[in-house]
Amino acid sequence: MASREDFGSWLEGVPTGAGAADRLGLPESGPGSRATLGPRLGALVVDWAAATLVAYLLLGVVSQGLGFWEGLSEVSASAQLGIFAVTTWLLVASIGSTIGHRIFGLRVVRLVDRRRPVGLGRSAIRTILLCLVIPAVVWDADGRGLHDKAAGTVLVRTR
Questions:
Q1: Close Cβ partners of 152 (under 8 Å, ≥ 6 residues apart)
Q2: What does the pLDDT look like over 76-85, one tens digit per residue?
């Protein structure tokens, strides 16, 4: 049975120490080690900005004659979220990383068999929970968000 200490949150930062890496079978540092908070947040910002830009271009806000910054404020939040969800789902399922992950040197892998692609099902679970936000900001003792834990995945460094 899990105790209260087994779960943390984004407020406490990513758990440190050899215990988490040992339990997951990951190296302590370098390629293949657990991703840290900074690159995770950076990748999320890049992916959200890309989704916003795509929504801006697809929804025809450009044709309204507004300036760029005014046009961005007209983009629907649900369109941004929808584009973010679809791109995250498909990119993680097929190549294991989003645009932001690639830029920050991260990759989503299966916890059990890291050589196999994440796949559509695991990626869908992970993406849906990521979009709900709360599962993504609550971490277990291993430093994985609940969205990764539910999908059986882990976000690792590629460099």
A1: 110, 111, 112, 122
A2: 899 999 999 9
